[in-house]
């Protein structure tokens, strides 16, 4: 068992003296986004759940056990393993917040289970998650870096988890939401998706700060490593996706979503997107379930230019505005 | 001809996008202590959206300060916003907020540091946009 390195002495953290202003900005964002599963009325989905076929129920249950596994890893091992590598004390504090929220996420899936699913089905799904080779391999690849001795590679693996590896699972609730099913469950998952965006952004940012401190050769090695890890994980994700979604004929649709998110993971690490647009054209219904704003309304350039979109009235209560 | 003003935090995502555009651009200073930026000619503003569940703080504070200046506001012609679809309905909402408050068109939205396609579309789109602007004026 890997032991967390404990530091010899502790200095009291002073939030009024920042080495990196991003730490406070992200801390504020994370604490401002804090939520608990109890605030989502999951029981309103009971009727909807009953309309799913057995195959659909099985896929959904397995998806959530897989997500539970990843959040368990990130909460109890992943985010915690980043703490000793921190460049600032405030960075350490942010990781403790991330670790806690990952545990809230893992807790949330159990809330979904207990609301919708019989204990027999839950047991069956947990057994499946323990026996599915692709899921176990995904966990193993990431855990290997968490246990290792290379802080920057650890951040790469962690960003991959936050920004890429969850999305084979997140697809399912977005799919149901787009069909007006399990909509409360989808609301809860959207809160998780929002958190993971901040986590991936922050860990990726700290990776880039770390890169500034190493020589050009090591920088190149880390870039090569990142892309080869991405390919390894992607191949494994494809297998996992087939296991989950082949029975419903959704695999190709999910793969677009995977590649779209793989690109975002790379961008969070400061690298260019890898998969071209024609391979990442996510089903518009899924994209709309994720973000109702992500439509073509904001592409004035591709239109004739005869009509402008002047932003809709948005609540702008920030006190900073002067006009 | 074309003028671009942008804000990018220390994460440099938006800065990278601007570099890829290869257009002349002025950066809104990161910190209040740095000299205030005064726009001198019509410009398009490119800003990231600070992600959150509620819309508070979606527009970076330094951008708000920049736009609070009447001279700067008067020269604003359009807005481009960056963001992340993970933030759901708050995706790129900085663009909505600025377009509504300043009554300018919301030209384009892209994710994180933008893909190659995003860069090409913005580069070409801005060129046409400024051509049309000067045609309207004459």
From TrEMBL, chain B:
Q: Which organism is it from?
A: Kineosporia babensis
The primary gene name is nrdI
The UniProt GO MF terms for this protein read:
FMN binding
Function according to Swiss-Prot or TrEMBL: Probably involved in ribonucleotide reductase function.
Stated name of the protein: Protein NrdI
Q: Which HAMAP family match?
A: NrdI
Extract the coiled-coil ranges from the record: none
A Pfam family it matches: Flavodoxin_NdrI
Name the family the entry cites: Belongs to the NrdI family.
Q: Which InterPro entries does the UniProt entry name for this protein?
A: Flavoprotein-like_sf, RNR_Ib_NrdI_bac, RNR_NrdI
């Amino acid at each position: 068992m890997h032991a967390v390195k404990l530091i010899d002495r502790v200095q009291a953290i002073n939030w009024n003296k920042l080495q990196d202003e991003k730490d406070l900005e992200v801390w504020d964002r994370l604490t401002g986004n804090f939520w608990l599963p109890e605030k989502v009325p999951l029981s309103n989905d009971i009727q909807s759940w009953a309309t799913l076929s057995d195959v659909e129920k099985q896929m959904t249950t397995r998806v959530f056990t897989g997500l539970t596994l990843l959040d368990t890893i990130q909460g109890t091992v992943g985010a915690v393993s980043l703490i000793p590598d921190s460049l600032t004390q405030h960075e350490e504090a942010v990781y403790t917040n991330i670790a806690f929220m990952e545990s809230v996420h893992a807790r949330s899936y159990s809330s979904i289970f207990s609301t919708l699913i019989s204990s027999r089905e839950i047991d069956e799904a947990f057994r499946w998650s323990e026996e599915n080779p692709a899921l176990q391999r995904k966990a193993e690849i990431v855990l290997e870096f968490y246990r290792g001795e290379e802080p920057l590679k650890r951040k790469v693996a962690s960003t991959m988890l936050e920004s890429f590896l969850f999305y084979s699972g997140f697809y399912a609730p977005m799919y149901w939401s787009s069909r007006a099913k399990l909509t409360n469950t989808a609301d809860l998952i959207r809160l998780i998706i929002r958190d993971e965006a901040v986590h991936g952004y922050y860990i990726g940012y700290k990776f880039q700060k770390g890169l500034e401190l190493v020589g050009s050769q090591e920088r190149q090695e880390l870039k090569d490593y990142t892309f080869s890890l991405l390919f390894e994980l992607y191949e494994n994700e494809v297998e996992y996706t087939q296991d989950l979604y082949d029975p419903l004929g959704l695999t190709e649709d999910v793969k677009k979503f995977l590649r779209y998110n793989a690109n975002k993971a790379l961008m969070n690490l400061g690298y260019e997107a890898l998969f071209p647009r024609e391979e990442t054209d996510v089903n518009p219904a899924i994209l709309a379930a994720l973000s109702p704003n992500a439509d073509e309304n904001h592409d004035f350039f591709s239109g004739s230019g005869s009509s402008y979109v002047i932003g809709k009235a948005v609540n702008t209560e920030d006190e900073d505005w002067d006009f | 001809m074309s003028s671009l003003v942008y804000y990018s935090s220390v994460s440099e995502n938006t800065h990278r996008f601007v570099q890829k555009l290869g257009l002349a651009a002025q950066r809104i200073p990161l910190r209040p202590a740095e000299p205030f930026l005064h726009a001198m000619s019509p410009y398009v503003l490119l800003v990231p959206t600070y992600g959150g569940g509620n819309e508070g703080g979606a527009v970076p504070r330094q951008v708000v300060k920049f736009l609070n200046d009447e001279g700067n506001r008067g020269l604003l012609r359009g807005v481009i916003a960056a963001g992340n679809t993970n933030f759901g309905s708050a995706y790129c909402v900085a663009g909505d907020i600025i377009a509504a408050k300043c009554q300018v068109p919301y030209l384009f939205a892209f994710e994180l540091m933008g893909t190659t396609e995003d860069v090409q579309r913005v580069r070409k789109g801005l060129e046409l946009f400024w051509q049309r602007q000067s045609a309207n004026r004459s």
